[in-house]
Amino acid sequence: MTDSGSTPGSLSDTYVAAIQHDLASLPPESTLVGVVRRPTGWFHGAVDENVPQLAPPADLLEETKRAETDLKRRGICDEEAHNAAWDQVGFESRYEAHLDSSADTQEAIDALADRLRDGESITLVCFENTAKKRCHRTTLRERLEDHLERTE
User: What's the helix, strand, coil split of the chain in %, to 5?
Assistant: First the structure.
């Protein structure tokens, strides 16, 4: 059970290359929580744990990748193709619907929220450099922040 007298931990997000190249400014003692569906071995080595339930559904990832590839074939640069593909497939709203409809996802969100309430600092991690590309982990961070505010 959550101790109501504890100081909440901080919540942030970053991408794995920023961690690997010391480009990320992370809160001290932050637990690095991967939120990818199919982590590589080197990704596992960069994070403390991975919670694949918080990744977008495989079909949404595949559809977005196909749209991005098609846009790149038309001559659109990598970052613009990625972001345009997000809009084309309605990525953000579909990912949010997944967060709302999956019992496993809700359980994972509740577990992270409890850890944050208990004072643990958490940094959500995936592959995308959000300086130029949109990423689900930012949507997830915002959702977790909203969840924490609603359940205080």
Answer: 55, 10, 35
Beta-bridge partners for 14: 125
Check residue 102 and report its DSSP letter. -
Any domain includes 68: yes
3-state SS, residue 114: helix
Tens digits of per-residue pLDDT, 13-41? 999 988 888 888 888 799 999 999 988 88
Q: Which residues lie closer than 8 Å to 91 by C-beta, 6 or more apart?
A: 56, 60, 64, 85, 134, 136
How confident is the model over 71-106, as pLDDT tens digits?
999 999 888 999 999 999 999 999 999 999 989 999
Number of structural domains found in the chain: 1
Angle at 27 between CA 147 and CA 39, to 5 degrees: 70
Question: Quick one: which of 56, 51, 31, 22 has its CA closest to 134?
Answer: 56
Q: Determine the structural domain holding residue 117 and report its residue range.
A: 11-150
Tell me the pTM. 0.88
